[in-house]
Automatic annotation (TrEMBL), chain A:
Gene Ontology terms: cellular component: cell outer membrane
Entry GO MF terms: copper ion binding
Protein name: Copper resistance protein B
GO BP field: intracellular copper ion homeostasis
Position of the signal peptide: 1-20
Region ranges (Disordered): 22-92
Keywords attached to this entry: Signal
Compositional bias (Basic and acidic residues): 35-49
UniProtKB/TrEMBL annotation, chain B:
UniProt xrefs under Gene3D superfamilies: Cupredoxins - blue copper proteins
GO CC terms: periplasmic space
Organism this protein belongs to: Aurantiacibacter spongiae
Domain of life of the organism encoding this protein: Bacteria
The Plastocyanin-like domain, residue ranges: 58-164, 207-319, 465-585
Protein's UniProt keywords contain rRNA-binding: no
Keyword Oxidoreductase in annotation: yes
Keywords from the named record: Copper, Metal-binding, Oxidoreductase
Matching SUPFAM superfamilies: Cupredoxins
Protein name (Swiss-Prot/TrEMBL): Copper resistance system multicopper oxidase
NCBIfam families: copper_res_A
Length: 369, 591
């Protein structure tokens, strides 16, 4: 007669209710596994007390297996007698426990304490001398060190030493404003590993007529200094105005609350010290529609008249861009950007017949690959 | 007695019957299957000498196309049906234009046949045939896959079933393999690069202004302050994956036949590259009878979570016309579907995807208090407080003052862990989470399997108490997509393996200092989960999920000499550095 789900010699073990297994871990039924017959009787008597509906285990047909299933079913469905959870019944009352969606929650606590108790006796030690020393070479004895050489190198390269290259065009936009419209780009690229990277950066602005207003390109070496920040140092070269080169030292990364930060200090070959910082924050409206406020500030220690820079706060720019990610890598956007020249810089601008502030309505595209 | 005595022989996936010697198909006659179509679903191969041919071709799944790697022309590749106590010769021919390999996942084999290039052997060069001949020492459900580069993602995997030498303690009228995996039209290296460059690239279930997540403003701010995402459940999701059952997409209607009253054994294998699945058969109780190929005392459950590379055998008795087997990705961005059908074409309702889960305070390793506190925490979790998807979390997050807490207190780490930018989190108070059903399954309202439910069916052969404890921390940085053991990527420790003396019995404690669950796999061995099972009956596994912010412990008898891979089985985590070599010394020798 093939009526049970598992062959007969297993039934004893099968019938051991999970709860009893948990108890036995505490030493109450140390031999439950071997004395399946006793467990079975225990099981049957317990099943008699239970009120769980047999329907909770439709897959099991035999009488004996039914008992086994009923017991489990009762645990799953909350008909458990308070007494059956004596080990875990605490001030909260056993009924709360039985209302849990699975009896395993009780087990967690039991298993936990058991393993912790046992583990306390097991010392944390280094491997014994018999464990050997030196690099892994077992395969060399079979295949030869030479045969293994290449694949061993490839394995290390593939599992952690991956190099990546990326090009990120954060802003490439047309700027509509009073007076003459303009355009702007803001792009960076990198090549390197997880911690060390070579960066290339470029930003620039121009007039719709085609004249470049400001533009520079930067080459940087970046090194991870925290889980979220890279320190970078390198050279910046201006592409407009008087030829000028700077030493650029800065940081770039992700601040708490997910602000993207970038800050640089520039020391020019003429000894001028200036600084720039920008911060951006992505706000997901939907999974693809993202609002990005950003702010940028430029500072100067001294006047740099030939560049139109006044000491103190040079310029401030704020912007709000709404982009739609067709793909993560490709997102057209619209937005508005407000820029102000302040203090000495404003004076320089006015002297040159320019406005000290401007409001831009922008439309552009952000992409990376 | 309504048995179908031969049904086990007719083990089939996808309605493809086992073939011993069918007419020789193109792939077997030699030559690559370049640009020919790769079939979905698998044949069965058995015998003492088995030929496997690795080739390339185009795959199409539900209308989406991409290049793939197939073995013997199909994805998954053929089911290897072996017999315990026999010897088998496996001839693997590589027709790719780059190296390949096959790892026999879960099979106890000599280390040099384990199939990991750079650890076990040099790899299989283009055009070369590699032969692995070994005795089959065990019965159960296993699988095989490439261990070269990212080939596994492209389709280079298949199931293994080993029939026991004696009678099978599990009685079933039908015996099916359900191999879960995923398809993407993207090149696997493209996925890797996207993960490196865009945190959350594949996640289209992120928190936003318009989401329905039950998080208040304070909780959202807290996640932002930590620079982490409560929705970081899986790295690669249904936004690119089509989840597969035996190679078939959910609309392609994979069917397993049954007759009323029959007991059906399903050998569920998670052969995916990056996916955890929640498996259920609405309306049925599933009896879990084996885990990772090893028999366990049957556990009746209504759902279980299967980590990448794990296997569970279940027995169900289907009723009605049809029952749906649902394997929902852990982040609920998609599902693999199959049907238990009483007659061809019969279908049951397919339940909709459930709401995506959220990570919790427990996943940050922030359980408070002592042992008693943990238990108290569980009571809270079960008593319907206002936190969604709470696992072992002790307090609703909103009520917590986290101002003074550091998510990255590196002073809590042992000196074996290298602290650096590769670690973005340290679990403040990691607890044993083997009683946890897995992310998102704590409040589903029905019985879900946990590791603490598993009890070995037979007594384990090594009763010794471990002589030492080895603690290994799983570490990572989500933002940079760096993953490692003890803060060191494999590329930093390739000459410094984890060492064991031969026959040494060691308790290994894996502490997860990240916010993702990691399925950790040790090659060449089974280890016993320290899960409170009766003495001598701790369940044996080859892969163990370590829940975020928690720990697991296992007892290992290092009795298989040689060098073995030890890694996270999430393919891109391994590829990012979460890999190590375990070196077991030769008997009596100094390695």
């Amino acid at each position: 007669m093939r009526t049970s789900i598992f062959s007969a010699f297993l039934l004893g073990a099968t019938a051991t209710p999970v709860l009893a297994q948990g108890h036995s871990a505490h030493g109450n039924q140390q031999t439950s596994a071997e004395t399946g017959k006793d467990d079975l009787q225990d099981e049957e008597s317990r099943a008699g007390e239970d009120t769980a509906e047999a329907a909770s285990a439709p897959a099991v047909r035999s009488d004996q297996a039914d008992h086994h299933a009923m017991d489990h079913g009762s645990m799953a469905h909350g008909a458990m007698e308070p007494g059956t959870v004596e080990d875990t019944a605490s001030g909260d009352g056993a009924m709360d426990h039985s209302a849990m969606n699975h009896a395993a929650v009780d087990h967690t606590a039991m298993g936990h304490s058991v393993s912790e108790r046992e583990s306390a006796l097991i010392p944390i030690l280094p491997p014994p001398p018999e464990a050997g020393f030196g690099p892994p070479v077992a395969a060399d004895a079979i295949w030869g060190a030479e045969a293994m050489h290449d694949s061993r190198g490839a394995l290390a390269r593939e599992n952690g030493r991956m190099m990546t290259a990326g090009l990120f065009v954060d802003r490439l936009e047309y700027r509509s404003r009073e007076g003459e419209d303009g355009y702007l780009w803001d792009a960076s690229g990198w090549y390197g590993g997880d911690l060390d990277r070579i960066w290339l950066k470029s930003e620039g602005e121009g007039r719709a007529s085609g004249d470049l207003e400001h533009a520079f390109v930067t080459v940087l070496y970046g090194r991870a200094v925290s889980p979220w920040f890279d320190a970078r140092v390198g050279l910046r070269r201006d592409l407009t105005g008087p030829t000028r080169t700077y030493i650029d030292a800065g940081i770039q990364g992700l601040a708490p609350y997910l602000f993207e930060l970038e800050a640089d200090l520039y020391l020019s070959t003429n000894g001028d010290l200036t600084a720039r910082a920008e911060v951006e924050l992505d706000q997901s409206i939907t999974q693809r529609l993202i609002l990005q406020p950003r702010a940028e500030i430029a500072l100067a220690v001294q006047d740099v008249p030939e560049l139109g820079i006044g000491a103190g706060i040079d310029t401030v720019e704020t912007g709000l861009r709404l982009r739609y990610e067709i793909a993560r890598e490709l997102a057209p956007y619209v937005g508005v950007a407000q820029e102000w020249k302040l203090g000495g810089s404003a004076d320089f601008a006015r002297a040159a017949g320019e406005e000290a502030s401007a409001t831009n309505v922008v439309v552009g595209i952000r992409f990376w690959f | 007695m309504s048995t179908l005595p031969l049904s086990r022989r007719h083990l089939l996936g996808a309605g493809t019957f086992g073939i011993g010697a069918l007419a020789m198909p193109a792939w077997a006659r030699g030559g690559a299957i370049n640009d020919s179509a790769i079939r979905a679903g698998f044949d069965e191969v058995s015998g003492t000498s088995i030929d496997l041919t690795v080739g390339e071709g185009m795959r199409t799944v539900q209308g989406r196309r991409g290049r793939g790697i197939a073995v013997n022309g199909s994805v998954p590749g053929p089911l290897l049906r072996l017999k315990e106590g026999t010897s088998v010769r496996l001839n693997v021919r590589n027709t790719l234009d780059h190296d390949s390999s096959v790892h026999w996942h879960g099979l106890l084999v000599p280390f040099y046949l384990d199939g990991v290039p750079g650890v076990s052997f040099p790899g299989i060069s283009p055009g070369e045939t590699f032969t692995a001949e070994f005795p089959v020492r065990q019965a159960g459900t296993y699988w095989w896959h490439s261990h070269s580069a990212l080939q596994e993602q492209a389709g280079h995997y298949g199931p293994i079933v080993v029939d026991p030498a004696g009678p099978d303690p599990v009685e079933a009228d039908r015996d099916y393999v359900l191999l879960l995996s995923e398809f993407t039209p993207l090149d696997p290296h493209t996925i890797m690069k996207k993960l490196k460059k865009g945190e959350g690239y594949f996640n289209y279930q992120q928190t936003s202004w318009t989401d329905d997540y039950p998080l208040d403003a304070g909780q959202r701010l807290m996640w932002g302050r930590m620079r982490m995402m409560a929705t970081d459940i899986l790295d690669v999701t249904g936004s690119t994956y089509t989840y597969l059952a035996n190679g078939h997409g959910p609309e392609e209607g994979l069917e397993f036949a049954f007759s009323p009253g029959e007991r059906v054994r399903l050998r569920v294998i998670n052969g995916s590259a990056m996916s955890f699945f929640n498996v259920r058969i609405p309306g049925a109780v599933m009896h879990v009878v084996a885990a990772d190929g090893q028999n366990v005392r049957p556990v009746p459950v209504e759902e279980f979570q299967i980590g990448t590379a794990e296997t569970y055998d279940i027995v169900v008795e289907p009723v009605g016309e049809a029952m749906t087997i649902v394997a929902e990705a852990m982040d609920r961005s998609g599902m693999a579907v199959a049907t238990l059908a009483r007659r061809p074409g019969a279908r049951a309702a397919i339940p909709p995807l459930r709401e995506p889960p959220l990570l919790t305070v427990a996943d940050m390793g922030m359980n408070h208090g002592s042992g008693a506190g943990d238990m108290e925490g569980m009571d809270h979790a079960a008593m319907g407080h206002d936190m969604p998807a709470m696992t072992t979390a002790p307090e609703p997050m909103g009520g917590m003052d986290m101002g003074g807490m550091s998510m990255r207190d590196t002073s809590l780490l042992p000196p074996t862990v290298k602290v650096g930018p590769g670690i973005d989190m340290v679990a403040m108070n990691p607890v044993d989470r083997m009683g946890d059903p897995g992310i998102g399954l704590d409040r589903v309202g029905h019985r879900v399997l946990t590791y603490n439910d598993l009890v070995s069916l037979v007594r384990n052969d090594d009763p010794r108490t471990p002589s030492r404890m080895l603690e290994i921390h799983l570490t990572g940085n989500m933002e940079r997509y760096m993953w490692s053991f003890d803060g060191k990527k494999y590329s930093a420790v390739s000459d410094d393996p984890i060492r064991f003396a031969y026959d040494e019995r060691v308790r290994v404690k894996l502490v997860n200092d990240t916010m993702m669950a990691h399925p950790i796999h040790l090659h060449g061995h089974f280890f016993e989960l320290v899960n409170g099972a009766p003495e001598g009956f701790q369940p044996q596994k080859h892969t163990v999920i370590v829940q975020p912010g928690g720990f697991v412990q296992f007892d290992l008898t290092a009795d298989e000499p040689g060098d073995w891979a030890f890694h996270c089985h999430l393919l891109y985590h391994m590829h990012s550095g979460m890999f190590q070599v375990v070196s077991v010394a030769e008997p009596g020798g100094v390695g």
